[in-house]
Amino acid sequence: MDVIFPTIFAVGWDKQFIIAKQHPADTQDHPDKRITNFFILRVSDGALVGPLDESSFEAERIKHGVAKELGFVSVDYLVRKRERPTDKA
After folding, report:
1. Full-model pTM
2. Looking at beta carbons, which pairs linking 45-54 to residues 24 or more positions away fall under 8 Å?
């Protein structure tokens, strides 16, 4: 089930929330990198807030109690980290 449609390029998570940055698709279904949408997903019930611009995201983050320390990590970084072979020495 898709909750946030492509293209998600950065995420953050803890036990209570998942936060995400997304570039929406343009008219040709390519990521429009001129636009960044922000989302807040509450883990306990799946409630989704967004798409939001950055200032609205910051306001909603405070309203919902998303930890200020919760930051974003690049999805590309997470994919590369997962694909890297582990050292067994």
Report:
1. 0.86
2. 46/3, 48/3, 48/4, 50/4, 50/20, 51/22, 51/24
